[in-house]
Amino acid sequence: MGANDPPDMDDVGMKATRDARPTHRVYVDGFFMDKTDVTNAQFANFVSATQYVTVAERKPRAEDFPGAPPENLVPGSVVFSPPQHPVPLNDHFQWWSYVPEANWRHPLGPGSDLKGKEDYPVVHIAYEDTQAYAKWAGKRLPTEAEWEFAARGGLAGKPFVWGEQFRPDGKWMANTYQGHFPDHDTGDDGYAGISAVSQYPPNGYGLYDMAGNVWQWTSDWYRPDYYQQLASAHLTAHNPQGPDTSFDPDEPGQPKKVHRGGSFLCTDQYCSRYIVGTRGKGEVSTGTNHLGFRCVMTREQWQQKTATKILSERNTPTRVHDPAATSLLEQSVH
Ligand SMILES: [Ca+2]
Ligand SMILES: [Cu+2]
């Protein structure tokens, strides 16, 4: 796993692959993965069954933010808020804002809702939220290695989850960003901003949106040197679980997990992390409106789920998590 040189070898692509080197061999046991990102409808089922309150909906605790004025301690989340004009690309606060009352029910803040967006990926999800959902669903998050294995869909060493060309025969294969970043999203690929799940062809394993649309949480801690550690062992890593601790030299105090897949904001003008093998990262309590997740199941979880489903159908037909939304990945080495 990891990323080779990007296809066009430009600065943005080279930068995106820096912490994803060197490529190294990994073995993962077989598992099942959700075909799509968890949708708003699926997350709503979870919330109505459990009354779960996401991190973005909770009031930040004063002790976690010493010195913050009380009026700033309001629930909310980080929303892409594009400027009206071109801006220098060295300051992401030009296009990200903390928006009070933004959360999964109100992805752009108060005034926005989920009407007609049942099949969109749920966003504004913190790591803790993924854990609660996965536990309820009898699933878990993928490790970073599982995620990449699944994303490659049986293709080895290709730059994209669908193959060699960014636009094979001129076709758009993922929801990324066209126009001028970050002020003008032309939506040439069919969508300016986020789209519903599975609007583009699936990869070789039948998985949708393994590049673009929204980033996806994995269970691994982030370190930029983790692949160097694995590669220097000169062995195939078996079911790697990530490093024991997280470290991001850009923001050393923040515990970060790995994100994968890139989003509707990815563009070769700024961040080309729709290239498979590249890595993202995010502080564990921070959700945004371009970050979601999907789950995997081990064989044991799958068998348990299948047994539970038969029972629950006999008892109550209401609480069935769609097992058809899961695809079998063969045990293999890549
Ligand atoms: Ca787009
Ligand atoms: Cu990106």
Describe it for me?
The chain has a single domain (11-62, 118-333), classed as paralog of FGE (formylglycine-generating enzyme), CATH 3.90.1580.10. 19% of the residues lie in helices and 15% in strands. The protein contains six helices and 14 strands. It has helices at 11-17, 40-50, 127-137, 144-152, 226-232, 299-315, and strands at 26-28, 31-34, 76-80, 96-100, 179-180, 184-185, 215-221, 237-238, 256-260, 280-283, 291-292, 296-297, 326-329, 332-333. The strands form five sheets. It has a four-stranded mixed sheet with strand order 10-9-7-11. It has a three-stranded mixed sheet with strand order 8-1-14, with helices on one face. The protein is globular. Bound molecules: calcium ion (CA) and copper (II) ion (CU). Calcium ion binds at residues 175-177, 187, 189, 191-192, 264.
In short:
This protein is of the alpha+beta class. 19% of the residues lie in helices and 15% in strands.
Layout: helices, strands, pairs:
Layout: H1 11-17, E1 26-28, E2 31-34, H2 40-50, E3 76-80, E4 96-100, H3 127-137, H4 144-152, E5 179-180, E6 184-185, E7 215-221, H5 226-232, E8 237-238, E9 256-260, E10 280-283, E11 291-292, E12 296-297, H6 299-315, E13 326-329, E14 332-333
Bound molecules: calcium ion and copper (II) ion.
Residues 262-263, 265-266, 271, 273 line the site of copper (II) ion.
